[in-house]
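User: Second chain of the day. Same drill as before.
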Amino acid sequence: MPVRGAACLALLIAFAAAPAAAKGGAVTSSVGRCGAHEQPAAAGSAAAIPIPRLSGRVVDEAHILSPATRDALTRRSAALERRTRDQLVVVTLPDLKGRAIEAWGLALGNGWHIGQKGLNNGVLLVVAPNQRRVRIEVGCGLEGLLTDARSAAIIRDPLLPLLKAKRYDAAAEAGVARITAILERDTRRPQPHREPQR
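Assistant: Same format as last time:
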């Protein structure tokens, strides 16, 4: 898989349905900043995470995706890179090992060097089904296109309803479809940075 160049990754948006909130479906959110501007404590905690090997465009460590879905996601991610140069990786994790999913996103993106050097155009879709967490991690070069509001909308629907129903194949396919549709709207790279709307 042609994953090149160190890219600072945006800690853009994370929505989590806590295990205790399974009946109520409560959702919490946090908005971060570009990984290059993270506080030292956050960077240190991310550096200590034992990240898995980058084995392809889909790293299904939690073993929740069917072979057909992994193949379909791989083809879609490759097609996206051909059209836009953006690199999209789907990763599932069986255990967050007591760390926040934000720290995992930062560690995976920086450790795997997702995104092309100079473009910072990597995107991770991270799913931790056992802790009921999902995150979209976005490279700094795509912050103007895959904004926090758009990422939040993808997580709210279709991801959260499908993940809560344990329809993991459908969730991954729908999430990747929405992400790629947004990234293909405008192929200028890097994207102009937009200030977050308050």
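Residues 1-33, 35-44 have pLDDT under 50 and may be disordered.

User: Great, on to the next one.
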